[in-house]
Design brief:
The protein has 85 residues and is α+β, with helices and mostly antiparallel strands. Helix content is 40%, strand content 22%. It has four helices and three strands. Helix 1 packs across helix 4. It is globular, with a radius of gyration of 12 Å.
């Protein structure tokens, strides 16, 4: 299940990165900075906030990833800012 690509691209632009559909098995998006891939984010087997807009599920996601998502530049950070914001 793919995400809302237009919204994901808009969120990525705010971070100074670009996104493309991932070539990695079971990943939604590849994140690029200055033309170099820096992360693969999202799992196509699960929906994200851009798809369901469910605030309760967003809250649960943020709680589960509280430790890893705050590290700027990590895949978890980009997933948070692009797919869950």
């Amino acid at each position: 299940m793919q995400t809302n690509l237009a919204k994901a691209k808009s969120n990525a632009k705010k971070l100074g990165v670009t996104v493309m559909p991932s070539k990695v098995k079971n990943k939604k998006l590849d994140v690029y900075k200055n033309g170099s891939k820096i992360a693969s984010i999202g799992d196509i087997r699960y929906s994200d906030f851009l798809q369901h807009n469910d605030e309760t599920r967003k809250k649960n996601y943020l709680a589960r990833h509280a430790k890893t998502r705050v590290k700027i530049g990590s895949p978890s950070y980009y997933a948070w800012k692009i797919l869950w914001d």
